[in-house]
């Protein structure tokens, strides 16, 4: 590809949507002038020397900082890092590397990858990116909790009955089955995105907002977690279904997936944190593809009011069954709402559940930046809060590796569910076992 072809490709999706002031076209032109294409092999020192030479021409002897973003297959991470480190590092400024997940398949392969990277880089040069941590509502979690007096005292086993982390996509693997089949939904979504959000949600108050202080608290949460039991896990796989005259293919109908594949496209699990704040509180995770909707949210269900005056049937609403619930919707239609029990206006005593609603699109006119924009800017500025440290990664894999090994060794058969449904029935039995009802029904 020539520089011109690259610029043309970039210009098709480039906008001034965050900075909407005047001279948009001039700014875009100025940006595109700084975009260059350079071709080479990932494992060729010679080609990286040529890249270094080209970079030096553009840097013109000024202080240079270099950020390498490895959005490439994991099996060539180390080759690329080795060559970049020895042949294309900055001599006058910093050199940093962003590594895109997956970070291995289990504890062993993850540790091997980390050790290999550390042959050529220091820990503070490695930025492991999990784009979910860059999402506005995930960023807002600690603000919501630590700067609002009404929430901070409630954030414990005394008041919270359960917490749910729900991720659903309304499409299947769509030709990416080859990649997905090697990893499955537990590795793809649960072990990283959902577990990272759980750690941020459940951590103790950090000493400061410094990256290391926050990451220290997240590691403590992960190390306090009880090993996941197989009986606390449900896996599923979507099957083909006909709906409204349209036939939707099943997972194994994808030509890139083996016909006898047991890879789960859906998983639900109950996790527990064995510390004084969260002892006995079920943290439920649910993630799946080809479900009825696309969404990601955190649901905090509070305990019932003790000795509730209104626990008998009032106008068809049994208040004993309706608990307060705080919902943080990460995507789409970002928002936060709190379900409260309320009297319906009128002469009778009829109660219902109402929402105190903060819908971001209605409250804020500013556009919400994409998660990758925030994370790339953080990497450039050396802000590590939202990136995953190696001991954090080790703790996350230590939690999930035994479970994954057991599922694979026992050849656990996933429960089939129709494309576009709410997932396998087993997920409801799992919730009921822990006296929980999924909040997204």
Automatic annotation (TrEMBL):
<keyword id="KW-0313">Glucose metabolism</keyword>
<comment type="pathway">
    <text>Carbohydrate degradation; pentose phosphate pathway; D-ribulose 5-phosphate from D-glucose 6-phosphate (oxidative stage): step 1/3.</text>
</comment>
<keyword id="KW-0560">Oxidoreductase</keyword>
<feature type="domain" description="Glucose-6-phosphate dehydrogenase NAD-binding">
    <location>
        <begin position="1"/>
        <end position="140"/>
    </location>
</feature>
<dbReference type="InterPro" id="IPR022674">
    <property type="entry name" value="G6P_DH_NAD-bd"/>
</dbReference>
<dbReference type="InterPro" id="IPR019796">
    <property type="entry name" value="G6P_DH_AS"/>
</dbReference>
<dbReference type="Pfam" id="PF02781">
    <property type="entry name" value="G6PD_C"/>
</dbReference>
<dbReference type="GO" id="GO:0006006">
    <property type="term" value="P:glucose metabolic process"/>
</dbReference>
<dbReference type="InterPro" id="IPR036291">
    <property type="entry name" value="NAD(P)-bd_dom_sf"/>
</dbReference>
<dbReference type="GO" id="GO:0050661">
    <property type="term" value="F:NADP binding"/>
</dbReference>
<dbReference type="Pfam" id="PF00479">
    <property type="entry name" value="G6PD_N"/>
</dbReference>
<dbReference type="GO" id="GO:0009051">
    <property type="term" value="P:pentose-phosphate shunt, oxidative branch"/>
</dbReference>
<protein>
    <recommendedName>
        <fullName>Glucose-6-phosphate 1-dehydrogenase</fullName>
        <ecNumber>1.1.1.49</ecNumber>
    </recommendedName>
</protein>
<dbReference type="InterPro" id="IPR001282">
    <property type="entry name" value="G6P_DH"/>
</dbReference>
<dbReference type="GO" id="GO:0009570">
    <property type="term" value="C:chloroplast stroma"/>
</dbReference>
<keyword id="KW-0119">Carbohydrate metabolism</keyword>
<feature type="domain" description="Glucose-6-phosphate dehydrogenase C-terminal">
    <location>
        <begin position="143"/>
        <end position="438"/>
    </location>
</feature>
<keyword id="KW-0521">NADP</keyword>
<dbReference type="InterPro" id="IPR022675">
    <property type="entry name" value="G6P_DH_C"/>
</dbReference>
<comment type="function">
    <text>Catalyzes the rate-limiting step of the oxidative pentose-phosphate pathway, which represents a route for the dissimilation of carbohydrates besides glycolysis. The main function of this enzyme is to provide reducing power (NADPH) and pentose phosphates for fatty acid and nucleic acid synthesis which are involved in membrane synthesis and cell division.</text>
</comment>
<comment type="similarity">
    <text>Belongs to the glucose-6-phosphate dehydrogenase family.</text>
</comment>
<dbReference type="GO" id="GO:0004345">
    <property type="term" value="F:glucose-6-phosphate dehydrogenase activity"/>
</dbReference>
């Amino acid at each position: 590809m020539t520089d011109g072809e690259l610029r043309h490709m970039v210009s098709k999706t480039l906008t001034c949507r965050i900075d909407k002031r005047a001279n948009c076209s001039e700014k875009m032109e100025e940006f595109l002038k700084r975009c260059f294409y350079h071709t080479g092999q990932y494992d060729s020192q010679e080609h990286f020397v040529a890249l270094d030479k080209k970079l030096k021409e553009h840097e013109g002897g000024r202080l240079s900082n270099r950020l390498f973003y490895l959005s490439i297959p994991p099996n060539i991470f180390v080759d690329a890092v080795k060559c970049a480190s020895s042949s294309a590092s900055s001599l006058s400024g910093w050199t940093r590397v962003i590594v895109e997940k997956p970070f291995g398949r289990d504890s062993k392969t993850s540790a091997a990858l980390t050790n290999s990277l550390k042959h050529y880089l220091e820990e503070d040069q490695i930025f492991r990116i999990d784009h979910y941590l860059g999402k506005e509502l995930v960023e807002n979690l600690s603000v919501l909790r630590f700067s609002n007096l009404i929430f901070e005292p409630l954030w414990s086993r005394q008041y919270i009955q359960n917490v749910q982390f729900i991720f659903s996509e309304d499409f299947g693997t769509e030709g990416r089955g080859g990649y997905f089949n090697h990893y499955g939904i537990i590795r793809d979504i649960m072990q990283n995105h959902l577990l990272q959000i759980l750690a941020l949600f459940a951590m103790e108050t950090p000493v400061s907002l410094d990256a290391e202080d926050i990451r220290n608290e997240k590691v403590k949460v992960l190390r306090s977690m009880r090993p996941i039991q197989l009986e606390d896990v449900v896996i599923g796989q979507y099957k083909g279904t006909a709906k409204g005259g349209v036939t939707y293919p099943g997972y194994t109908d994808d030509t890139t997936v083996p016909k006898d594949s047991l890879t789960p496209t859906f998983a639900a699990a109950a996790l527990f944190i064995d510390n004084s704040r969260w002892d006995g509180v079920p943290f439920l995770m649910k993630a799946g593809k080809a479900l009825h909707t696309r969404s990601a949210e955190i649901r905090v269900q509070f305990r019932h009011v003790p000795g509730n005056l209104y626990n008998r049937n009032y106008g068809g609403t049994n208040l004993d069954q309706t608990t307060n619930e705080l919902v943080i919707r990460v995507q789409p239609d970002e928002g936060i709402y709190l379900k409260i029990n309320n009297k319906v206006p009128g002469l009778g005593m009829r109660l219902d559940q109402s929402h105190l609603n903060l819908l971001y699109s209605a409250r804020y006119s500013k556009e919400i930046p994409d998660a990758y924009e925030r994370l790339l800017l953080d990497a450039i500025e050396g802000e590590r809060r939202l990136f995953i440290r190696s001991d954090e990664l080790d703790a996350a894999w230590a939690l999930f590796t035994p479970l994954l090994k057991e599922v694979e060794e026992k050849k656990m058969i996933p429960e089939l569910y129709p494309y576009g449904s709410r997932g396998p029935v087993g997920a409801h039995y799992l919730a009921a076992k822990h006296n929980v009802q999924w909040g997204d029904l």
